[in-house]
Amino acid sequence: MNDEKWVDINNLSDILGVLKETLRRNCLANKYVYKVQKTGKFKHYQILITSLSQVHQDKYINELEPKNNDIDFEIYTNAPEWARKQADKYVNLFNLTAGMNFKQIKEFINNWNSKYPENKTSYSSFRWAKRNYEKDGITGLISKYGKRKGQFKIKNEYYEYFKSLYLKEGSPSVAICWRMTFGYARQFEVLQANDFPSWWSFERKLKQEIPQQAIYLARYGQQAWNKKYAKYISRDYSDIVAGAFWVSDHAQIDIAVMVNGKVCFPWVTVFRDIKTSKWLGWHLHFESPNSDHIFQAFY
Question: Does pTM top 0.90 for this prediction?
């Protein structure tokens, strides 16, 4: 699809299998590029195909341009045996689960994995394979692992822009960052979504260059990183006698109470035995912690 193509929301709804109202709401939420034409009292929405998600673009193209089965067969025949077995497995699973809903498919896959542990799959892998099969036929199931390892068609300036969006605390998902990067790239050159590297290409490049811990730290902050990745030394309490060591701390209670006509969340200051975890003394208070509260809890 090389030209800018606008499709009426009614036709798009039938092709994609998405409710017309869902598409309309997505337009109003600016998830798609759209335009509105009025005929009397009625509004007709048209959506720019290249502004759809890659999955929906592929599905739309697939409906208009049937696959060449001869080419599929040739690629399948020339593929290595392990790749053909993988493709055969998924085609068989598609046939066995035809007409099933989400829960039934998940249950079927769990039973399949129990019966055939040497030929396991997961629901996410099943969905990924089915999308590829709907898009490219048997060709989409032939693994291309290793053929393009280390090769990326991502321009460095677009990759750096993607990183600046993604590697921030509280930043959106990788798919949204990719859409923003695509919009940024279109300011400098004429691009269609099919010509732009996919979001998983950006993510794969990022994960190959930056450690997972560093990505997690950038996106979720130091406190979350400490809980997930920070190293710690386990304490040995076996030689400690009960009552030998005490520890003290404050904590704010997650319960709202009314005090003098104002709503507040009370604090508790506690002394605790480090061996038995028994509370030895505590003090409830409504003000922020200070030394008086520590003395009161100790008393």
Answer: no
Long-range contacts of 242-249 (CB under 8 A, 24+ apart): 242/273, 242/275, 242/276, 243/273, 243/275, 244/274, 244/275, 245/273, 245/274, 245/275, 246/271, 246/272, 246/273, 246/274, 246/280, 247/271, 247/272, 247/274, 248/272, 248/294, 248/297, 248/298
Contact 206, 152 (CB under 8 A): no
Structure tokens at 66: 């049937």
Q: How far apart are CA 221 and CA 140, in angstroms?
A: 38
Q: Give the tens place of pLDDT for each residue, 259-295.
A: 888 899 999 999 999 999 999 999 999 999 999 999 9
- Dihedral angle computed from the Cα positions of residues 157, 160, 165 and 170, in that order, rounded to the nearest 10 degrees: 180
Please identify, in words, the CATH class of the domain defined by 156-228: mainly alpha
